[in-house]
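ok new one. same drill as before - structure tokens go in, u give me an amino acid for every spot. 205 of them this time. try not to just spam alanines like last time pls lmao
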């Protein structure tokens, strides 16, 4: 792998960004690669912007993804995903996005508030190669907990098979971090199933 494969997880504090980053890094280790994980926090760790950078290579690399070089953007919150895309995405970027909105103190104070997830998807589609927008909120309501969002979104990412990582390795790595039983297991499976029904939009569709 001559160039690093770059994954960015974007969301707000408390959504499980770091769990996603650790799971993806662990999956890359299972394939003999050298992952580097870095994080950028907004105003506060819980409720503020959080971006987790995962750079996967067979050689040493820096912890932060260069501007415009994200290959896979895993979006746990629509507005934060768009903000991350403006800084880090490019025409090669594939986005897996939860349309479940989180209204933070910052968005409540902003005059324009929080744009609809539909407007976010439209904006992402002008920047990125493909955008898979998935209704995680509805699925997690059926499962019974919003706390399994990270498992749900990792299941979706794994099922797409658009990264160098193997789905089984992602699942096994996640199971080493959180109990992958009950609701978490159901969420991972639901994400993997639901993403197959999503029609992507974007520059390469």
């Amino acid at each position: 792998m001559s160039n690093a494969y770059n994954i960015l997880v974007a969301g707000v504090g408390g959504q499980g960004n770091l769990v996603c980053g650790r799971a993806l890094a662990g999956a890359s280790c299972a394939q003999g690669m050298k992952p580097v994980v870095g994080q950028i926090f907004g105003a506060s760790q819980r409720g503020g912007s959080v971006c987790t950078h995962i750079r996967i290579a067979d050689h040493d690399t820096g912890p932060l993804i260069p501007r415009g070089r994200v290959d896979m953007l895993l979006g746990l919150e629509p507005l934060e995903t768009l903000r991350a895309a403006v800084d880090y995405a490019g025409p090669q970027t594939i986005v897996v996005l939860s349309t479940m909105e989180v209204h933070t103190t910052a968005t409540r104070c902003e005059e324009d508030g929080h744009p609809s997830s539909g407007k976010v998807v439209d904006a992402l589609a002008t920047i990125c190669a493909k955008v898979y927008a998935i209704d995680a909120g509805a699925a997690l309501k059926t499962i019974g907990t919003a706390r399994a969002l990270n498992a749900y979104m990792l299941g979706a990412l794994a099922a797409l098979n658009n990264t160098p990582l193997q789905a089984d390795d992602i699942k096994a790595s996640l199971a080493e971090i959180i109990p992958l039983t009950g609701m978490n297991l159901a969420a991972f499976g639901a994400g993997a199933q639901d993403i197959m029904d999503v029609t992507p939009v974007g520059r390469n569709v």
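The longest strand covers residues 49-57. and btw The chain has one domain: 5-197.
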